[in-house]
C-alpha cells in the first residue's frame, strides 16, 4: 500500500471573513476537521499549505491557518507564493523524504490553488485523491461557486480519484 499524506491547501482565516466567506464555509470546516481527525487517528502525515502573498500577508491575522483546523506540532506547514504548492517550495522534497506516494487533497480555492496543485502533483507522479466536498471557492461573475466546484470535480477526475469526505478511510 502506498504511503499517504493529507494536504490541506490555503485554509486560512482570510478565506472565512464575515463579509465574503468561502462557499459553504461551515460545512467545509466540518469536513476538514473530520479528515484531520481520521488522518491523525491513523498516523497519516498532515501537510498544510499556507499562501503568502498580497492579501494573505505573512504573519497577519488573515494569513493564519483557521483555528478549527489548527496544526499539531508534528504537522508540516509549507509556505507558498503562487497557486502551485510545489512551485518554489520544499513540498516535493518533504514528500519524497517521507516516502509519500499518495496525496489526499482538500482546501481552497477550487479553480486556482487546488486545481494547480492537483495537476502538478499528477505530473510529479503522485497518486491523488481529491475530496470532492472538501474544497471550495467563491461565485464568479459567470458561475456560482457550486458550479465551479462541480466543474473542477469533473475535470480533475482525469488527474485524481474523486471521493467525498465520508468515503475516506486512512489506514
- Kindly state the mean pLDDT as a whole number? 94
Q: What count of helical segments does DSSP give?
A: 4
CATH class division? Alpha Beta
Note the quaternary state here: single chain
- Secondary-structure element series: EHEEHEHEHE
> How many distinct domains?
1
Q: Which percent range describes the beta-strand content?
A: 15-25%
**What is the CATH topology classification name?**
Rossmann fold
Describe the structure.
The chain has a single domain, classed as Isochorismatase-like (Rossmann fold, 3-Layer(aba) Sandwich). The chain contains 4 helices and 6 strands; from the N terminus they run βαββαβαβαβ. The protein has helices at residues 25-41, 91-97, 110-123, 145-156, and strands at residues 4-9, 46-51, 76-80, 102-108, 127-136, 161-163. α4 links the parallel β5 and β6. The termini are close together. The relative contact order is 0.21. The mean pLDDT is 94.
Itemize the secondary structure elements and their pairings:
Layout: E1 4-9, H1 25-41, E2 46-51, E3 76-80, H2 91-97, E4 102-108, H3 110-123, E5 127-136, H4 145-156, E6 161-163
Parallel strand pairs: 1-2, 1-4, 2-3, 4-5, 5-6
Amino acid at each position: 500500500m502506498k504511503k499517504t499524506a493529507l494536504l490541506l491547501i490555503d485554509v486560512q482565516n482570510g478565506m472565512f471573513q464575515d463579509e465574503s466567506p468561502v462557499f459553504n464555509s461551515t460545512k467545509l470546516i466540518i469536513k476538514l476537521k473530520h479528515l484531520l481527525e481520521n488522518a491523525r487517528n491513523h498516523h497519516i502525515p498532515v501537510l498544510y499549505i499556507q499562501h503568502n502573498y498580497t492579501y494573505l500577508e505573512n504573519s497577519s491575522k488573515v494569513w493564519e491557518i483557521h483555528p478549527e483546523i489548527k496544526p499539531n506540532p508534528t504537522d508540516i506547514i509549507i509556505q507558498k507564493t503562487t497557486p502551485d504548492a510545489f512551485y518554489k517550495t520544499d513540498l516535493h522534497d518533504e514528500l519524497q523524504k517521507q516516502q509519500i506516494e499518495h496525496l489526499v487533497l482538500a482546501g481552497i480555492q477550487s479553480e486556482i490553488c487546488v486545481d494547480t496543485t492537483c495537476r502538478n502533483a499528477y505530473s510529479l507522479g503522485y497518486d491523488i485523491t481529491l475530496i470532492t466536498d472538501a474544497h471550495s471557492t467563491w461565485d464568479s461573475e459567470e458561475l456560482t461557486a457550486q458550479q465551479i466546484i462541480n466543474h473542477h470535480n469533473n475535470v480533475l477526475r482525469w488527474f485524481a480519484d474523486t471521493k467525498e469526505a465520508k468515503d475516506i478511510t486512512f489506514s
